[in-house]
Amino acid sequence: GMLTLKGITKEINFPFTFDTDTFIGTFSIAAKDFNINREGAVPSGQIKIELTIPVTE
Predict the structure, then answer these.
(1) HSE-up of 1 (CA within 13 Å, CB side)?
(2) C-alpha span between 33 and 7 (Å, rounded)
(3) How far apart are CA 40 and CA 24, in angstroms?
């Protein structure tokens, strides 16, 4: 899918699982790809994003 942060759109792969009534997934992005550059804020250069999305009717 596509992810947009700070006006920058990049394609990402977002693996997820579905358990009972919730989607759960984790992915990482490179901070520099989205112009996230606060000094010392992201020492590894990678930002891990974890999502838990409940499904309701």
Answers:
(1) 6
(2) 11
(3) 29
Contact 4, 34 (CB under 8 A): no
What does pTM read for this prediction?
Answer: 0.73
pLDDT digits (tens, 9 = 90+) for 9-49: 999 988 999 988 999 999 999 999 999 887 777 778 899 99
SS3 labels along the chain: CEEEECCEEEECCCCEEEECCEEEEEEEEEHHHHCCCCCCCCCCCEEEEEEEEECCC
